[in-house]
Specification:
6-stranded antiparallel β-sheet; mainly beta; Double Stranded RNA Binding Domain; 199 residues; single chain; 4-stranded antiparallel β-sheet; extended
């Protein structure tokens, strides 16, 4: 993340995302596959770093060696050609997008950190239950703990979608876009940028 200053002098917090170049590595059609989609490849890789199945797959489409492959549903796959290059120029400042990524893993976390529980009382001689969850069920009825009860457990490292982020800046030469606000995941993590579904 960083910040930019707009023409009114207002400071905008933004996240810089490298948005290309991506290559169309495969087209899927209703006739052949039962649905319409395109597969995109991203991330430069040395040819010798590819395993043979992936190298053969990319050779068929005429795409260069790429590190990541991801599939996107499209209504009309005929708009795309295998080997076609897609870069940041498809975005424009002011567009609204959703960004999907994998959140930072936090490991095993307690109820206070994971769910925002308030913890126990800090007084009346209580000394060791500050961050404990308290009661998790009733006695005779239901006589068990409900499924889905919020407790301590693994936190983070989940697929997260942040919706309706506005694109503040597009640099097509460097294949970089800047979106307002934060996106999921650590630095240099892989994210998917798509047209906002609710925007």
């Amino acid at each position: 993340m960083t910040q930019i200053v707009d023409e009114k002098g207002i400071i905008i917090p933004v996240t810089i995302i490298e948005a290309g170049p991506c290559y169309v590595t495969q087209k899927k059609t209703v006739e052949n596959d039962g649905y319409s989609a395109v597969q995109l490849g991203f991330g430069d890789l040395r040819q010798k770093s590819l395993n043979k199945p992936k190298a053969g797959h990319l050779k068929k489409s005429g795409s260069p060696a790429v590190k990541y492959l991801r599939e996107f549903r499209v209504s009309n796959p005929d708009e795309y050609q295998e080997g076609q290059k897609i870069d940041a120029s498809i975005f424009a400042a002011g567009d609204v997008v959703d960004v999907i990524g994998t959140s930072k893993g936090k490991g095993f976390a307690g109820g206070v950190k994971r769910h925002g529980f308030s913890g126990g009382p800090k007084t009346h001689g209580q000394s060791d239950r500050w961050r404990a969850p308290g009661s998790i069920g009733a006695g005779t009825t239901p006589g068990r703990v409900w499924k889905g009860t919020r407790m301590a457990g693994r936190m983070g490292n989940d697929r997260v979608t942040v919706q309706n982020l506005k694109i503040a800046l597009v640099d097509a030469e460097k294949n970089v876009i800047a979106v307002r606000g934060a996106v999921p995941g650590a630095k240099n993590g892989l994210v998917i940028v798509r047209k906002a579904v609710k925007g």
